[in-house]
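Handout, section 4.2: multi-component inputs.
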Amino acid sequence: MPLYLAKRLGYYAVLLLAAVCLSYLLASLALDPRAYYEGRQPPLSPSAVDHHLTALGLNDHQPLRERFGHWADRALLHGDLGRTIDGTSVNAEFGRRIGVSLRLLLTGTVVGTVAGVLVGAWTAVRQYRFSDRAVTVASFALLSTPVFLLAILLKTGAIWFNQTTGTDLIQFTGEKSVGADGGFWAVLKDRSVHLLLPTVSVVLFTVAGYSRYQRSTMLDVLGSDYLRTARAKGLGRRAVLLRHGLRTALIPMSTYFSYGFLALFTGATFTETIFGWHGMGEWFVNSIGKNDVNSVVAVNIFAAVVVLLSGFLADLLHAALDPRIRQAS
Amino acid sequence: MSPLLDIRGLDVDFDGRPAVRDVHLTLDRGEVLGLVGESGSGKSATALAVLGLLPGNAVTRGSVRLEGTELLGAGERELTRIRGSRVSMVFQDPLSAFTPVYRIGDQIAEAVRAHRDVGRERARERAVELLDLVGIPEPALRARAFPHEFSGGMRQRAMIAMALADDPDLILADEPTTALDVTIQAQILDVLRTARRETGAALLLVSHDLGVIAGMADRVAVMRDGRVVEQGPAREVFHRPREPYTRQLLAAVPRIDTPRRTARADGEPVLRVRGLTRTFPVLQGSVVRRRTGTVYAADGVDLDIRRGETLALVGESGSGKSTTLFELLELAQPEAGTVELFGQRPGTLTKAETRALRRRVQIVFQDPMASLDPRMPVGDIIAEPLRTQGAGKAVIGRRVPELLTRVGLDPAHADRYPHEFSGGQRQRIGIARALSVEPELLVLDEPVSALDVSVQAEVLDLLRRLKEELGLAYLFVSHDLAVVRNIADRVSVMYLGRTVEAGPVDEVFARPRHPYTQALLSAVPVPDPDRERERQGTRILLQGDPPSPTHRYDGCRFRARCPLYPTLAGDEQKRCAHEVPEFEGDGAACHFPRVREVL
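Output:
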């Protein structure tokens, strides 16, 4: 098993290298940082533009191969991803943004995943009853609602709630109140209040998605012979459904879980934008708008790393859940 | 004294359709009741209804009493207390009957803990004791194995161990040996007998196999279309059946101990195979695949068929029957050995010659549902081989009705789809398709093993008639030795990829010389309670499972399980260990062949 995992990691290193080269090439070819400086008001002199671009390592008068060489030397050997087009450190921006995305999505994803699994398993057990149909309809309605629409509906609801109660209990802009201070508990409360709406929106989507998958894997298991065996040996209904049913039905879910983890780090562009959180998703969209090659490449590399890690995690999870996989490898 | 189990007026409906009707059965303490019937007769539903294990779409009425306690309509809590404790169950397919993610020992320990207030450790120890009781070697070690690491026979042993966990009064066994090979079936039936001896439990044995029932049951109930048509002591039901249906069923069962007049064919050779070998690589790795081993699927197969003759190729699963068959149909140069079809050597022929040869050899598959395209009318299915051979519209228009009539179907049904026919009719369609291009050799791959006995008898009759009328030769692949005795003229027995014995069917069955053939024949149950009880004392039980085909064994490959081998002298054993027993045409591939009558 360790050998198998080591080999897997080896493949990933090769894939990652390919992803790095491709994303640098693509970003350099598709984005035009010169246009960003030339469009400045007041206009910059051509030599000033060249100066800025050279400082960032993005001067298109230099051959692409050389630019990539310099960038790779710095990034891959020294871990320095360069400067953003506004001159700040990409690494610093990175650290800040990941934190924001994580804080925004972690609670929602964890709660949503657990709830999604439980809801899915529950609806499978109650197949074709009213509760199953109701959850199915609600899930598909949710899944076909655009994120921004749901977020705006949530906001409208919050405004109505605040107005009718005459308080400003629900906050939905940014991570924290401006100038909020006080002890640990006050800060925690302030942050939780801000987190409420985005979390609700993330939970709703996660539950809707996972419960569909979980329902179908659980249905496969419910008709299986080994569940009948478990009943025949005198186990109670709960033990049969959870220990033998859900436990086995979780195996195919491991892949979905891992890629949910991916979304956690690469951010949720719409959710961030609407609720005013400055996370990874927003950064990616903004840097494309600004022709900021270094930032775009950084986000891409990060996404590639997380994708591969997710795949690795899926393998680990799969092996942990299923002894047949453990032994086959 | 009131009976242990008393079923009165039991009805079971699935989605409103009746499956069981007005069934009355009683079972005394320690008694074995055999519940026999064809598929759809309601025998399994009856057994499952006892413990309330029917699927959600089932509705039951009537009464099922366990020592006076009503089980039908009892609460889940009450049933949970009885299941696995006073009444336990052994299911058919041991492959899917264990939860794949838990160790065998833990699953048995779970059954122990479901009813006894014991600690985890004690339950584990008990699981190991139970595995030991059902004859699993190194039980402490094997208890830590996962279900997929067990062979089919081992899993069924473990299943019985689990059923014994709380010393039940009654064991319900639903087709417990149906998915197993015949030598493994003999082992499992033996384990069931041990289990009964140890616990004194009564047994409700559900089976479609009259031979299995004859060997086990004290009393027998025969079911048909959801009803019990006849019930009585086993000897009476088997020897003096009162109901016409029982008589019909007993008459239809092919018997391994009834000699038949066989054709002595002296026609020209149709197929001659010598030393046929086919190996498959074992590959590993996901990105770079490399060969890490070899499966010796066929490793020295000899076959001879003459015109007008039926050769049965028999062997247990994994013996290489199917590989041999598909290797022949490939019409290519074999990996090693020689194949001669109608005097020609496939692989040395031109494209046109190969095409002509293909017409002369056709196949009928095992599963009549899976081998017919569900979206094609049967007329088109039958016409397809004709089209492939370039037949015109006129020929097809004439041949299709002719073929349907020949296999006993109505030519007017040519535009119907496969699902509109019964299993037996579908197999007739498969036969008509194979016959369409007027082949001379028909390869039949387990053609009747998916069919019920009465239908089986009809299809076998049809095959016999067609052979006479058309002068065909058959290569009949089967694991069912009773069917083989019923249809074949000659028989060829395979073990682990090699032919071990061949000859005229009556000679081989009456006087088998290879120890494996003897064990195989001895394991087949006979639908006669008296004879079965007689045979039980002398039955040859092979130990364990066939070894892995990923090795090429030195010497005789049956050695490890051979009942004769341990009785041989030292230098004789040495010969078995180092020298591969040669075999040419008819005879037995054994260094020390001794005739032993086992039927």
